[in-house]
């Protein structure tokens, strides 16, 4: 029988739990405090911790019930131990420790970003590295060469802001609600990419790129227009930004697949939920004769199924965590480890 893994995620504003049997997803539950946070224009750490404390028991019960399993049947508990908000992480981590201890089963601490990267295995359980991966979240944006389930090489990435961060900042300057990404995408759908964007973004060598110039350009554009009392299309600006920010990612990941001689491209992280990027990756990979495997949209943003998926990889590798495992607010992007 394949291992039965419970995943728990509480690094930011989603309290989530999911159960997988092998790479088959049995349940995937989220209780979000995003609507509450939106009233403050972003995540307030203390409110996030309190919301996790309220929700964690309920979300785990829902995940077990939804999967039709009893906690006594679990093989291991996988939980995000970092990166994220310290107080928020501690809620999920402490709950997972208590559960693993009481059941006498392994605790598996999962690096949140490795979780994002492992989401794709639930989409296609037969998927095997090597392949090239686009990672684009609120904290990271990079092109990776995934050598094995546990090891990757960083081919390049952002020199400053992450793509998701740029979306969030542009959303703020356009007075769109938190979280910004989906709102910028929705507004962009009503516009055209008619506003010229700075060239430097595409001028970077290798697989590196930069978002800070683009972000500053948008901020200055909005301020200048409003100072002059000039009218402009917010939708066109959002659409132009979206093209500039995402075209480069699709181009670079396809280029990397060619250079590395792989026939498969995967992706992970919140920005991969973006419909324009998904369509663009689909078109570019098709044109280049590459197979593209993307996690479902809801499994690109924070969820616990991806934590369970990475937990399974660590479970098979025998990488269990001690009950002294502590939360890590930041974890560097490392070739191997967790
Ligand atoms: O991966 P994620 O859920 O959290 C991190 O681990 O960082 O990513 C969140 C980021 C946010 O910056 C959010 O604005 C962005 O992903 N995002 C999007 C979309 N949905 C979420 N960006 C662009 N388009 C979207 N549809
Ligand atoms: Zn995330």
Question: How would you describe this structure to a colleague?
Answer:
- The structure is a single chain.
- The chain has 338 residues and is an alpha/beta fold.
- The strands form two sheets. The protein has a five-stranded mixed β-sheet with strand order 3-2-1-4-5, with helices on both faces.
- It starts with a strand and ends in a 22-residue tail after the last helix.
- The relative contact order is 0.18.
- The model has no long low-confidence stretch (mean pLDDT 95).
- Helix content is 44%, strand content 18%.
- The protein is globular and about 65 Å long.
- The chain has two domains: 4-119 and 303-317, ATPase, nucleotide binding domain (Nucleotidyltransferase, domain 5), CATH 3.30.420.40; 129-298, Nucleotidyltransferase, domain 5 (2-Layer Sandwich), CATH 3.30.420.40.
- β2 (14-21) and β3 form a beta hairpin.
- It binds 5'-O-[(R)-(carboxyoxy)(hydroxy)phosphoryl]adenosine (KG4) and zinc ion.
- The site of 5'-O-[(R)-(carboxyoxy)(hydroxy)phosphoryl]adenosine has 21 residues, from α4, α6 and α7.
